[in-house]
Amino acid sequence: MRNSRRSKSSDGRAPIGPGRRNRQELAAYAARLIAETGLRDFEDAKQRAAEAFGIGGQAGLPSNLEIDAELRAYQRLFQSQSQPQALRRRREAALPAMQFFAQFEPRLVGAVLDGSADGFSAVCLHLFADDPRAVAWFLDDQRIPYESFERTFRQQDRQAYSVPAYRFERDGLEFDLTVFEVDALRHPPLDRISQKPMKRSDRQAVEKLLSTG
Question: What is the pLDDT of residues 86-102, one digit of tens each?
Answer without folding.
Answer: 999 999 999 999 999 99
